[in-house]
Amino acid sequence: MLLTIPTAVTPPWTTMLGFSVLPAVVMIAGAALAVWRAPGPQLRSAILHFAAGVIFSVVAVELLPDIVQHHAPYEVVLGFGLGVATMLGLRYFTQRLEKQEQAGKDAEPAADRSGLPTSAAATLPWGLLVAIGIDIFIDGLLLGIGFAAGAKEGTLLAIALTIELLSLGLATAVELQEGGHGKGRAVAIVAGTSLMLLIGAGIGTTLLRGATGNLLEIVLSFGLAALLFLVTEELLTEAHEETETPLLTLSFFVGFLLFLLLGMIA
After folding, report:
1. Strand positions, DSSP E, 45-202
2. What is the 3-state secondary structure (H, E, C) of 184-202?
3. φ, ψ (nearest 5 deg) of residue 258
4. Which of 89, 134, 165, 198 is deepest in the core (most CB within 10 A)?
């Protein structure tokens, strides 16, 4: 027997567009902030911890109860398995790109008297940018999945991804500057990369708008796996590159509690 799930209440296109633009704009703002005054590693780690707590809260409070409520184990296994396989495949692909990029850097001529590599001003880190672009595109698809689940879920997920992309914009701009790119060029590159979020969100909301029944359960389970991967294998992994302190750990739980309460009162 087919599973029947009521159609998710999706917001108007203008609302979804606005919530899709917000993370992209904040990512660009993060890049501008980084080239003006780069944040210290402790502050960036705190942002990553907070973002991980926020996204984990959205998963636990909004997505997971919807998935469990409808008792469709086969669809959950299928969607969750596809989500894990997709994220592991993307991890493998992006790591290969980054290794190729690093190998290219190692093969560059020695630095000239100015202290910069002779090709730094003309070379874009394509491996890094493609990896970031894929990551942002997946974030956009997840945003579309959130809005497929409902207006509330999509809105909370948009806010959570905004915090994540703030950190990503900071880190990318710093990486580009260290590679010899000017401030304006670094921000422009980040701005171009952020468009992948809008593309992903547009595809997600277009394909999943009004999804119901078994399809919605598979999609939500896919999103569940992808978001858990994002928290455990990306945000927290990067956050733990810095020495852990009680305040950094606390920022994770503050983010979780904040969105737990927001989900209860919204």
Report:
1. none
2. HHHHHHHHHHHHHHHHHHH
3. -60, -45
4. 165
